[in-house]
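Risk mitigation, structural track. In case the binding assays with tryptophanyl-5'AMP fail to produce interpretable data, a predicted complex structure has been prepared as a fallback.
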Amino acid sequence: MTSKRVFSGVQPTGNLHLGNYLGAIRNFVGLQRDFECIYCVVDLHAVTVWQEPAKLAAQTREVAAAFIAAGIDGEKHIIFNQSQVSAHAELAWLFNCVARVGWLNRMTQFKEKAGSHRENASVGLYVYPNLMAADILAYKATHVPVGEDQKQHLELARDIALKFNHDYGAEFFPVVEPLIFGEATRVMSLRDGTKKMSKSDPSDYSRINVTDGPDEVALKIRRAKTDPEPLPGPDAMVADGKVDPAREAARPEAFNLVHIYAALTDRTVGAVLAEFEGQPFSAFKERLTEVAVGVLGPMGNEMQRLMADPGHVDAVLRKGAERAREIASPVLRATQDVMGFLRP
Ligand code: TYM
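Fallback model:
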């Protein structure tokens, strides 16, 4: 079995934001040192909800550009878009026949996304986690870096691997390890600290987009909801570097900004609270703006530069897809053999 291979994906649905960066993409960059990494722009996942055909290609290039601008090396590792490698869709079908309806019925993200219009949601949205399992297992990836919101989907990928191995009596698929780390595994909306920062929130003030310029970042942080109290101190921390859940629940917006600051400056939340204890949020927001602009500014500029040269981004995706196919095709063939398909 392959040792230590990382796979992760990001949907090209527009509005790539600070949550995607701090919860996922930034972690993708660091993992390149110790793992063979495969990072995918998951366009097949994106179309589970309506995507304008005229925009999908640009959105796909935008995520690829973000990967490259953040520091992912498409030569040493693999960057590609999902629809170019047909093994994802083919393996997903096989997994549709392994996963149980009851498992999918428990997926909270489907319930949230389908909302009260469940009858009208696409079937693709319902079986989305099976495609996610196929993405990962087509490469027999062992480690998957994601934000907190993908945890349940990764548990399903583990269940699929275990059931497949059990049903076919083979130690075939690895049981994947989620990698959820850093100080901002769940970045919340700037307008409502009980909702996660999301690409689909109708208010652009709810999120900081990775392509926002300094003025937009400053304005959004200035307008970010807080409360009249000053910053809490390190006594808000409990064991394991975690904030006391009761204190966090009482001031979700305040702690969200602290998590963001800690992640952007590569410090612990405890260290940030020790420095800013008792200070007003107005002053803290200014510091937060400086560090956010300091991190996102160069990345956004590099993304703009890359997006102005689509030929280069497309070449990275094309070469990445070729290399991805070389790994995924034999895994798909071997899966078909294990299942007994005739291949005369
Ligand atoms: P997506 O495109 O919604 O998000 C991409 C990554 O960003 C993380 N993320 C967040 N992290 C912290 N705070 C937030 N507010 C926040 N919002 C999003 C997500 O957890 C994710 O890591 N289903 C996946 C894409 C996918 C995938 C895969 C991931 C498809 N196949 C295989 C891993 C492995 C998704 O919709 O991510």
